[in-house]
Design goal:
2 copies of one chain form a homodimer. Chain A is α/β, with parallel strands linked by helices. Chain A has 6 helices and 5 strands. Chain A has a single domain, classed as Ribonuclease H-like superfamily/Ribonuclease H (Nucleotidyltransferase, domain 5, 2-Layer Sandwich). Chains A, B: GO terms for molecular function: crossover junction DNA endonuclease activity; DNA binding; magnesium ion binding.
Chain lengths: ~180, ~180
Amino acid sequence: MRVLGVDPGLTRCGLGVVEGVAGRPLTMLGVGVVRTPADAELGQRLVAVEQGMERWLDEHRPELVAVERVFSQHNVRTVMGTAQASAVAMLCAARRGIPVALHTPSEVKAAVTGSGRADKAQVGAMVTRLLRLDAPPKPADAADALALAICHIWRAPAQNRLQQAVALHAARSPIPSKGRTA
Amino acid sequence: MRVLGVDPGLTRCGLGVVEGVAGRPLTMLGVGVVRTPADAELGQRLVAVEQGMERWLDEHRPELVAVERVFSQHNVRTVMGTAQASAVAMLCAARRGIPVALHTPSEVKAAVTGSGRADKAQVGAMVTRLLRLDAPPKPADAADALALAICHIWRAPAQNRLQQAVALHAARSPIPSKGRTA
């Protein structure tokens, strides 16, 4: 299966595409970062993240998008930007009927390094080895996006089929929303 | 000026459109709520919020969208949904070149009741009076959305012209975003 991993952020949103199945060598199809300037209007930064996501979805046609699950225990300013960028990433995927899976940072670290407390260097080193790259992807957000994709491919072979069925069904029958006008 | 106020939320996203200028009687043009089911996939809920926002922007053509500024001091689960719904609301506005303004809950309460610590009932009562309605809009999220729009119209007549110029300029020259592919 082909998975687009997203390490969400407004300043840097890491994106990485990995293809493969659990138990077989994996292939990296793309890695990069969408950056938005810190001094731009928030709405414009979200539009830039959306445009980046759309470009990557168009180019790589992933079967699933794996996004880092955001917690609010971190820095207040950072977590808001992360939550907002992740919302845009999930929206872009869901609009196309592509299933979205969320993984916590410790799930991702445990999947690729064996330890939920691994540091960025360890994650980068394992991503480099597992995808047979010449050097760790830079910046760390790009490596983290690849790690998310790898984590997803390894963790949930059965769950993926279920998620695809659910997302396809949801895309065919969108949620009715209500509103009234004076 | 015509302002769409948004009280962001995934379960209930309040929307209210108010037209007027500071110092003159205000007119309510629409009020409502976009609801998404708590048991739906997060991506699908964000798509439903986007569809609701698009419908309201199409119908009411606001000159500005005023969104409640989200803080992460509240309940962890709630604040994430609020941040995500607000991201979708800001994205929809910015994509159309409509300026987005953020106001804190206490700014809104202070603007419509005179006290930053007013309760929901007070805000509802003042919204009812200021817009000359027969009864307070229900649910509270809908009244809060109207209060946001009123707050914006009253607070920043000079600032609005600046925001419109900035948003128009940004919409004409989108932020370049980077990415590379293997």
